[in-house]
Predict the 3D structure of the following.
Amino acid sequence: EETTNESTQGDSGTTEGTTEENASGKLVIYTGRDENMVQGVIEKFNERYPDIEVEYMTMGAQQILERVRGEKANPQGDFWWGGTQAAMMVAANEDLLLQWDPSFIDAIDPLHKDEQNRWVGEMLLPEVIMINSDVMSPEEGPQDWDDLLDPKWKDEILIRGVLASGTMRTIYSSMIFRQGADDPSKGYEWLKQLDANTKEYTQDPNALYLKLARQEGSISLWNLQDILLKKHTTDYTFDFIYPESGAPILVDAVGIVNNAKNEENAKLFMEFLFDQETMIELSKEYYQIPTRTDIAADAMPDWYKELDLKSLEIDWQVMADKEAEWMEYWDTNIKGKGK
Amino acid sequence: MSKKSVDTYEASWWSRLTQSRYFVYILISPLFLILFAYVIYPFYSTFIQSFAGDNQLANYQKFFSLESTANLEALWNSFYISIISVICCAVVGVMMAFLLERYDFPGRRLLSILVLVPMALPPLVGVLSFTFLYGESGIFPRLFQQMFQLEDVPFALKGIWGVIVVHTFTMYTYFYLTASAAIKGLDPSLEEAATSLGASRIRVWRKIILPMLTPSLIASSLLVFMVSMASYTAPLMFGVERTMTMQIYLSRTNGNLDMAATQSTILSFVSITFLLIMRWYQNRRNYQNLSKGISVHRSEVSSKPLKYLAVTLSFIGTLILILPILVLILISFSKDGAWTIQILPTEYTLDHYKALFTDERTWRPIWNSLQMGFIATVGNIIFGVAAAYAMVRLSFKGKTALDILITIPWALPGTVVAVNLIAAFSTESVFTFNQVLIGSFWILPLAYFIRHLPLVFRSTSASLMQLDQSVEEASRSLGASWWYTFRRIVIPLTLSGVLAGTLLAFVQSIGEFVASILIYNTSTIPLSVAIFQKLYAFKFGTACAYGVLQIILILIVLIISERLSKGSAGSAI
Amino acid sequence: MKAVHINDVSKKFGDIVSVKDLELDIKSGEFFTFLGPSGCGKTTTLRMIAGFYYPSKGKIYFDNQDVTTLQPNKRNIGMVFQNYALFPHMTVNENIAFGLEIRKYDKKTIKEKVDRIRELVHLGPYGTRKINELSGGQQQRVALARALVIEPDILLLDEPLSNLDAKLREETRIEIKRIQSELGVTTIYVTHDQTEAMAMSDRIMVMEHGVVKQIGTPQEIYHRPNNRFVATFIGETNLLTMKVQSIEDNIITVTNDNGLVLQGLTENLAPGLQVSNGDEVFISIRPEAFENGPGENTVTGIVELIEFTGVSVNYFIKWNDTTLKAMIISRGTAILQAGDMIELHIPKQNIYFLGE
Amino acid sequence: MKAVHINDVSKKFGDIVSVKDLELDIKSGEFFTFLGPSGCGKTTTLRMIAGFYYPSKGKIYFDNQDVTTLQPNKRNIGMVFQNYALFPHMTVNENIAFGLEIRKYDKKTIKEKVDRIRELVHLGPYGTRKINELSGGQQQRVALARALVIEPDILLLDEPLSNLDAKLREETRIEIKRIQSELGVTTIYVTHDQTEAMAMSDRIMVMEHGVVKQIGTPQEIYHRPNNRFVATFIGETNLLTMKVQSIEDNIITVTNDNGLVLQGLTENLAPGLQVSNGDEVFISIRPEAFENGPGENTVTGIVELIEFTGVSVNYFIKWNDTTLKAMIISRGTAILQAGDMIELHIPKQNIYFLGE
Ligand SMILES: Nc1ncnc2c1ncn2[C@@H]1O[C@H](COP(=O)(O)OP(=O)(O)OP(=O)(O)O)[C@@H](O)[C@H]1O
Ligand SMILES: Nc1ncnc2c1ncn2[C@@H]1O[C@H](COP(=O)(O)OP(=O)(O)OP(=O)(O)O)[C@@H](O)[C@H]1O
Ligand SMILES: [Mg+2]
Ligand SMILES: [Mg+2]
């Protein structure tokens, strides 16, 4: 009851305040993002909208998809924060996401959002080469994708289980794409050689980090943000090498659940999340690379400035069409057969 | 002293009803109702969906097509991993049960609690401790490497065998619990009879004890077989990716829900076939104790050396079995990232516990899990015991159906179960008293209840099969109503079986993750999800410390139940 | 206190017929015994009366009330199970008190009753023992005490004394009898001990293969068996197949191929049996029918085998190719040796004629 | 085929002493019976011989080999358990064949042997039945068959016939006896049936409260009991406390306060018993010691109670305030009524003198 009291008081106090600031009610967020970050953002959000009661639930992207899918008849979540492009596309195709044009939509590269704006990329994830800096310095490591095939890295490469990971699937597909999408056999050959050097496919990111840290291997392929986060905020000695020929750049996206109970609040949250200020701060603290193209370069943190975000030339449409087929082929014919 | 007699017969509609041949169907109807509401209703859609499309069998054709053998390969892998898992778990579980039940020595009671602890191994961090133990950079491989100055580690747990080791270590408790309940209830004079006829110890085991344990062995075989079929993390961890669960996962990720439904249906079909074979095997024989009177319990262990051997074996066995737990504790005290290429961690810290104990949000999930686990387990006990009784003691048509329905939620992967529940209960329905369960507190206990249906049911029916029916009759003849008999005679005499199932159900509920993550909400975060969140944030040490808390919690439960069962659940003879 | 009426009851287990077309009236307060070879359906019948089996056919009435499918606990019976069926998780006292607690006696009364009955079955000091610490006979006594203490309307005793020694058996027998007649409890008793059956029963039913062979008082059953089965089953008898030679007045003379000639009385013909000259009849002579020395139906033969049974000596006597068993009371005096000649006689009234 | 020597054996369960200082020699091939009231320690002794209990004190030898702690399966014994202990998960055939399989007979021999023994215990058609589909007596027979079929060195039978009817019991008894004497198996038998014990045993041990009371042949035990316990326990007896009035030649005259005067022979004094004038002695008179009509030691009294037991009639006779039980062979003739006068006599040689 107190909350209602306060909010009515607030109402009478700031009669001229925008209706938005008076927004109240609930907001349920399903997120695949780092918990600390989520909490930080929500705190900030609540500073602006004190009457919105935000709940969040941390899950993997796949689990969010399952959940949203199951709840289709009566959605419980409002906002999906953090999902791979693939998961978002599946969800959009199953009609699980709201078609909506936020105010900042034009500032986002069409490559990084859904055609119908059912999902919008929030940040970019370059997929790079990850190393254990205890074992080698970035200079000593493989400098480009093709270097990975060097026999000297035999049994040094650890890979996060490919099929279960949207990230890894994209990396592997782009490797095939890089060798020519029309005839995947060259790509397959390439992957076969990579497989020969691969020591192990790990069950999940944690296992990958642990094994890498414990020097069961020293090289992996992983996304830049996580590497930077580990490098700067934990005791783990990870570092990265940005491949010379460029990296496949994934999108991590957000979306509003179709028929959400608190659709308006979700919209407010999305606007808030894409606020330039928020984005800059997130890139400072959480090494996020914003999708928004209209942020002044000066405002961005140093690590970002040092980075040469060179992208692999990729036709995402082709990738999306072929991925399943390629991955199945890889899974049945290549995986574990390189040796 | 006036002579009193029991309430006798009155010719009312009620007595006419209760005496009817068909009254048994009224008795069992609640069981079927519950199964209908919480198994058939949520799960039939999966089944129907598997036939979706123009060509109704298209998915099945695809599954079995020889062009892409991924599915068949997965089926085969899952199947034989499960079979081997069952065998390994049986060997370990029954052996420990035998050592700890049959020999009395100082410390036996402590060991018999410790040996149960592995079932408390938290699913997410738990499996990782195996890598820390036997993986490529694990304690043992590195230890041997250093000891013998080898270039490479001498061995590392990998592939199928890795999966089987993990399965064995985490699932032998199914066998241990039910087998020790059954050994307690076994009439000792049978063994004596066999030895008097000249049978050696081994033969007594092969011909008398093991066959007499059949109901409990079958119960646990079923449970283990099905969890192994539906196991996800272990195969993934050891790189055996071609399994049924993985295929289901992939289909769902790719948005191919029909195929996922087909795969789920086939998975449960295999499990049900296994169930039917086991049922047939079990029903061929009788396992009820028949001896006249109550046999004398053998009060002596024959030879001293044998006893010492038993003590040593059970000690070593228990130690090996709880190693993963010990490693978990070790990690929880070691500094994140500092344990790299050494055999044992070099830097220790209390930080992880500090982090836990200073965060007020730590305790909420523990309380949540306890609460929800408790509710679900109470439900499981009531349903499981009633169903077991009906199954073993009443005669009615539809027993196989009952058995299958109870089994299905256990045989399917957790994700599939959860997704079905979400779909079924995200709108109002009569089965939920016109409430939306999704998003409410009740969905989690309900999920645990449904998923763990077979646990209490199986272990209780195994115990019941052993119990000589005439003691029930004796009670009835003395005027005890069915309910009184049930309370005073049946329950005390099958207590060890009921308790075994209860423990399994409760511990499983506390640790359940796969389904929980899909249906929890912010106010009902269960312990497993809380651990996952720590892990997700890569606070590895803290996650392990959290896991240790969970283990301690379960240990307390185990100790309490040991106290409870002491004395009363002596024997079911 | 209740009459039991069994109306054309059969019980099948699958294909196996355990009890067939059983028709039986047990009077209120009667002491009724089932006798019959092992496996003849005694326990099955008892269990139907108790309500643990439902008849495959027919009805069971207590007084006039149809109880065919009434629940066992509503029947107010007390039963001793052949296998005791004691509650292993309870002490002796708890086992005995079980039925009393259900009948909601107060604690004190229960204790009194339990203590009394425990003394009675000579288990005085064993009240707090666990069941598995008792000997077989002691367990049986607990089972008996448990059934007796509730003073039921109908007492069903399935070989309740089989594991007790003669002394105790007799005492317990008397006690059962006392309770039975004091309270007028209808008692149905299954035993293999014929002496017991004879001594205790008002009436006896003899069964074979699930079929009733004869129902009657002990004396009727023993002395006027209806058929060969009853004659040979109850007590020992020498059964001879013979031909009727002549019927004069009330004396029947029979003979056989071995040259045996015996004389008996027409009053000893089995009920319904009609004989005329040349008919084949069965002759039943109880071993104890023999008397020392010559007389009516003198038997002179060679002793083939001697059995000493305490009270008496049994002689197996070869007489014209027929072996007869004779029982003579032993008095510790010198016993004959195998091969000795012996002379005995059989009083006419001790010879019985049976049809089938 | 093995002698059993039990050397000063005791067995305690916690504080409870079940068997105390037992000293016993069973000869090879002997048929030896344990008799005693329920709970006296028979089963416990048997189980020590079988190896299921270890004596708390003392040693057990088979021939000269110390087997005190030898495993049961190394002893080559066959045992019928008081509670049968049948394997519920096996059929009748499988139960019986169990011991044979261990002895590695070939399939054919096993089948033959099993079929033979099954016929023998009258379970011919029951070979493939499950144990839970058998009646109590049928189960007992399976237990018996299972122990007999292996033709062991030592056969331990714990009330193996308690649930069988008299006919079958006798047949089985004869069969046991036959196997025993044919193969010379040392047999130790526990029974509550004294007739059985008398008829079958070479020697009998009578126990009470775990202590041996007498060991001897059936005749010795019955006619020359060492003490009151044995006299009253074995068979029935009239036990009177009397005073020695005079000893003349070999005739002892005793009397009591009720004015009874009886005469007996000195040869009937219990072993080791010395009496002189004025001593108190116990007199044992078996009910069957009475003979009809007057004679030595004439007894004239009033019939108090009559018991009909088939073979005989028991009269309880009141004679000068002492009640005596007399057993007279019944022949279906008219029986006296309670209250009638009766005159009987007791031949001198039928009166026994016991010390304690
Ligand atoms: N495990 C035990 N613990 C304590 N006391 C026991 C145990 N087993 C037997 N006894 C006691 O020892 C005594 C002898 O028992 P035992 O079984 O040898 O008797 P028994 O002579 O075979 O009697 P029965 O004829 O009734 O079978 C009994 O008083 C019994 O109560
Ligand atoms: N559950 C059952 N299934 C099949 N047959 C059975 C079952 N119970 C009993 N029988 C058979 O029915 C017959 C009668 O059994 P019942 O137990 O009534 O015999 P009984 O007269 O009590 O014999 P006993 O004196 O040996 O105890 C037996 O031949 C037995 O084998
Ligand atoms: Mg019976
Ligand atoms: Mg005994």
Notes: Residues 236-354 of chain D form a domain with the OB fold (Dihydrolipoamide Acetyltransferase, E2P) fold (CATH 2.40.50.140). Chain D has a mean pLDDT of 86. DSSP finds eight helices and 20 strands in chain D.
